[in-house]
Automatic annotation (TrEMBL):
Domain Glutamine amidotransferase type-2, chain residue ranges per copy: 1-198
Family, per entry: Belongs to the asparagine synthetase family.
Name of the protein this chain belongs to: asparagine synthase (glutamine-hydrolyzing)
Lineage, top ranks: Bacteria, Pseudomonadati, Bacteroidota, Flavobacteriia, Flavobacteriales
InterPro entries reported in the protein's UniProt record: Asn_synth_AEB, Asn_synthase, ASN_synthetase/amidase, AsnB_N, GATase_2_dom, Ntn_hydrolases_N, Rossmann-like_a/b/a_fold
CDD domains (alphabetical): Asn_synthase_B_C (cd01991), AsnB (cd00712)
Gene: asnB
SUPFAM superfamilies: Adenine nucleotide alpha hydrolases-like, N-terminal nucleophile aminohydrolases (Ntn hydrolases)
UniProt GO molecular function: asparagine synthase (glutamine-hydrolyzing) activity
Record keyword Oxidoreductase present: no
Gene3D superfamilies assigned to the protein according to its UniProt record, in alphabetical order: Glutamine Phosphoribosylpyrophosphate, subunit 1, domain 1, HUPs
Length: 595
């Protein structure tokens, strides 16, 4: 959507560059000074009557996503006297906004990014879902406005945001509100934006956020039953579709629980899909196949090889049009490529690790908590003394605990290397995520909250959205239902994590579907064996991409340090795949966008 005076062919070209997001219909409408463009991936009400942009009186809407409880909202609107001409959630959103204005956001349970123009007031209202499942980019500078689900159509003529490059080198992504381009921003999750074109003003407000909670006084069995009911409802409302639907199934707790519930509540046999690897250290496909037999799904396994990765690298840069260095994006692309041959909508287990303490770094926090309790000057002395090497304890995590002044700093270091590859430290971009410090007094919950607000939105959700939309697949994640996020935070920590047993309550719910002896096998994580491929099958590709000409283009990069890491990795002496992959992805981005 734009208020810049582009000719229609330019708007069409911009939409065509991301046509994979909506291949079923392209709609362009001009109202006053605004041009609305929409790419439709038809999921509900496949009839042309539900095409967008959609107009109702003086309101015009463009919208990306799904409102899972739209039938409930529709019924409420019908009791208020409204009638409907479609069976879509799009019309429900438009009429809901007409009735309640911004308060419609409090009624919506879904994943969404949308803009509604009011021709009577010459104002634009835009919003993004609570957890940032759907993307929202906007360019706002000197009265000019463009909004899009991806940044590619907004990049032409822009300059690189060098601060964003430094943040990317600290993490694996560019967190909101930053983007790779100057004057282009991401609307943060749980926020809405109002633009008054007459006054030339822009304001952004929060409508949902994590907040301090009081822990429930509840028995474990009661909590397990309540959570189970919530999960069943979250899965059930995400099975609404007028096109074929399936479920991703890995060897983990989260996807197996979602798939098991879906198999139980679905009126037809569900299709499940998994990715495997030739290297058994990374392969979970055999476990997933066991699960599929138990829940009686139609299962498809695809083995990901180095040759598949080579073929997907151009696709990676095409659809992840900001630098993005989570290497599991590659198997995610392959998984969606295969899935699209069978279904258009797929359920996933994303979000379970954040709410139910599932990541390895949560274990690390617990292991190093006692170290953090030692006064900082003593810890600093121990770190420099060489004692750790003497006792074989010289690890990055322990050094982190010894050299970090506070627990909050220790938590933050999980998500950022804070200038490790930089010549000069960047600004404190994490100021946008400081709320986690006051939401809970519990050490683990603080880390989980930061995980939800920072990593979930900017890494996990970006990975899933781009990989799925690359092949016109819509992924729905029951664990990202805001009701489950909120409920999990009210549970006592030992319901979720007890004596190293991660996701305790989810495991106990899963017992109703799959024998514990099967799902208690070690979890590998959804990652490709990039470390090995860098040194062997893809060695030439990496060496050519990371040449001096490219490295000298990267602002604030410590080239000497990176070259040392690169040589140590390629020789097999050390493992620095994270940093090498990060620069490799950045080199592909520079080449793709000719910066």
């Amino acid at each position: 959507m734009t208020n810049i005076a582009y000719e229609k062919p330019i708007i069409e070209k911009k939409l065509k560059s991301i046509s994979f997001r909506g291949p079923d219909y392209t709609g362009i409408t001009t109202v006053d000074q605004l041009t609305f463009g929409h790419l439709r991936l038809s999921i509900l009400d496949l009839d042309p009557r539900s095409h967008q942009p959609m107009v109702n009186d003086h309101l015009t809407l463009v919208y990306n996503g799904e409102i899972y409880n739209y039938k409930t909202i529709r019924s409420e609107l019908e009791t208020l006297g409204y009638s409907f001409h479609t069976e879509s959630d799009t019309e429900v959103l438009l009429i809901g906004f007409k009735q309640w204005g911004k308060n419609v956001l409090d009624k919506m349970n879904g994943m969404f990014a949308f803009s509604i123009y009011n021709a009577e007031t010459n104002t634009l209202f835009s919003a993004r879902d609570r957890l940032g499942v759907k993307p929202f980019y906007y360019y706002w500078h000197e009265g000019a406005l463009e909004i899009c689900s991806q940044i590619r159509p907004l990049l032409k003529g822009k300059t690189i945001n060098e601060e964003a490059i430094s943040i990317f080198l600290d993490t694996d992504y560019i967190p909101s509100p930053y983007t790779i381009a100057e004057h282009v921003y991401k609307l943060p999750p749980g926020h809405y934006m109002e633009i008054d074109f007459t006054r030339q003003t822009k304001t952004i407000h929060t409508y949902w956020n994590l907040k301090p909670v009081t822990l429930k006084n509840i028995s474990y069995e009661a909590a397990k039953n309540e959570l189970h009911d919530l999960l069943k409802d979250a899965v059930k409302i995400r099975l609404q579709s007028d096109v074929p639907i399936g479920s991703f199934l890995s060897g983990g707790i989260d996807s197996s629980l979602v798939s098991s519930i879906a198999a139980k509540v679905s009126p037809t046999t569900i299709n499940t899909f998994s990715i495997g690897f030739e290297d058994p250290k990374y392969d979970e496909s055999k476990i997933a196949e066991q699960y599929a037999k138990i829940i009686k799904s139609n299962h498809t396994t695809t083995i990901c090889r180095a040759s598949d990765i080579m073929e997907l690298i151009p696709k990676l840069t095409q659809v992840y049009d900001e630098p993005f260095a989570d290497s599991s994006a590659l198997p995610s692309l392959l998984l969606n490529k295969i899935t699209r041959q069978y279904v258009t909508v797929a359920l996933s287990g994303d979000g379970g690790d954040e709410s139910f303490i599932g990541y390895e770094h949560f274990d690390s926090l617990i292991r190093n908590k006692r170290i953090m309790d030692i006064p900082y000057p003593i810890r600093k002395f121990v770190s420099k003394s060489g004692i750790l090497k003497l006792f074989g304890m010289d690890t990055h995590r322990i050094h982190n605990a010894l050299n970090t002044k506070t627990r909050n700093d220790f938590i933050e270091n999980i998500f950022s290397r804070k200038g490790f590859l930089l010549n000069k430290p960047r600004q404190d971009w994490m100021k946008h995520y400081q709320g986690y410090k006051s939401w809970s007094s519990l050490f683990l919950q603080k880390a989980a909250d930061l995980n939800i607000k920072l990593w979930l939105e900017n890494d996990s959700n970006v990975k899933v959205d781009r990989a799925s939309m690359a092949y016109s697949v819509e992924v729905r994640s029951p664990f990202l239902d805001y009701r489950i996020i909120e409920y999990a935070r009210t549970l006592p920590m030992h319901f979720k994590y007890e004596k190293g047993r991660q996701k305790k309550i989810l495991r106990d719910i899963l017992k109703d579907y799959i024998p514990e002896t099967i799902f208690n096998q070690p979890k590998q994580g959804f990652a490709a064996p990039i470390e090995h491929w860098m040194r062997h099958e893809l060695r030439d590709e990496f060496t050519q991409a990371l040449n001096d000409d490219f490295l000298e283009k990267v602002p604030n990069l410590n080239i000497k340090k990176f070259k040392k890491l690169f040589e140590a990795h390629m020789s097999g002496k050390e493992n620095h795949r994270t940093y090498i992959w990060k620069l490799f992805v950045l080199s592909k981005w520079y080449k793709e966008f000719e910066f």
